Amino acid sequence: MNIKTNTARARPLADNGFAGDVLSGLSAPRKWLPPKYFYDERGSQLFEAITELKEYYPTRCELAILREHKADIARVFGPKTALIEFGTGSTRKVRILLDAANTVEAYVPVDISAEMLWQEARQLQHDYPRLRVLPVAADFTQPFRLPSAIVGLARAGFFPGSTIGNFEPQDAAAFLRHAGRMLGARATLVVGVDLVKDANILNAAYDDAEGVTAQFNLNLLTRINRELSADFDVDAFSHRAFYNSDRRRIEMHLVSGRRQTVNIAGHAIEFARGETIHTENSYKYTIESFGLLAQSAGWTPITAWTDGYFSVHALAKA
Ligand code: TRP
User: Which of 111, 132, 210, 217 could disulfide-link 88, Cβ–Cβ 3.0 to 4.6 Å?
Assistant: First the structure.
């Protein structure tokens, strides 16, 4: 898969080259930082807190859709299936499917964050003693080796959380194609996708009244200060998130409140007053536009379940 790296997106890769990534992003004519660096310990905690905010509807909506339609979703998986989850984090969502799908014989959580992965896998194995839990510590956007223990099982993928929306659309298509190659012929894929909606609702979800999302965004600068001995004056930057309706995406930026120079690993980076660092996008789709994207990547849309806010799509190999 050929992923361009000229724009911000969530790709949970390893932390090698943090300094290089930061310097190259901040040396670009339009400054940006890779969103994968949000998730240090504090960032992961803040993200958990975001998912519980009243304004942040996606997590709540997706959980409700999974609960309401778990039996129908489970029917999409064939008999004797290995369920592979791309970028697992918490196992809260997949548990809903596992409870409904007794045809799932093996569960393969894939995540770059090995420690959380082992911990979640151990707990899940304890709670589902008859399931074969086979964790893989890997960057899910890159080819990885599936456990040999799933040989002979049908394969289904699970990609919740609208993480697909954090890719540029062409990279989202590339990811879906890559997932198709990993899962093989006759595979199915269940994907959570956030929907285009009223801009006020979208704006609030990414700019909550308590300022938790602002803290999450600004924590990136605190992390750069700590790990790269930089001297960002974090108070001189502010969080800005807005829905760009032309591009159907939320954009998150950090805005410099004044003209300033920041030193990072021996490099001086100049900021004009009002200049921004683009830290993340979250693309929104319609049921139809996501179906077309999936089709362009070799998948056939089977069913989409929605509450009008969020959607869960079942895809099958074309
Ligand atoms: N993929 C989710 C979304 O785009 C979660 C997410 C990623 C997020 N980065 C974020 C949520 C930053 C809030 C702020 O909504």
Answer: 111
Q: Which helix (H) or strand (E) holds 281?
A: strand 276-283
Q: What secondary structure, in 3-state letters, does 70-130 show? A: HHHHHHHCCCCEEEEEECCCCCHHHHHHHHHCCCEEEEEEEECCHHHHHHHHHHHHHHCCC
Whether 276 and 240 have beta carbons less than 8 Å apart is answered as yes
pTM score of the predicted model = 0.90
Pick from 161, 159, 162: nearest CA to 176 = 159
Q: Ligand 1 pocket by C-beta < 6 Å: which residues?
A: 10, 50, 58, 161-163, 165-166, 206, 213, 216, 280, 282
User: What is the tens place of the pLDDT at every residue in 178-210?
Assistant: 999 999 999 999 999 999 999 999 999 999 999
- Candidates 127, 124, 131; CA nearest to 82 is 131
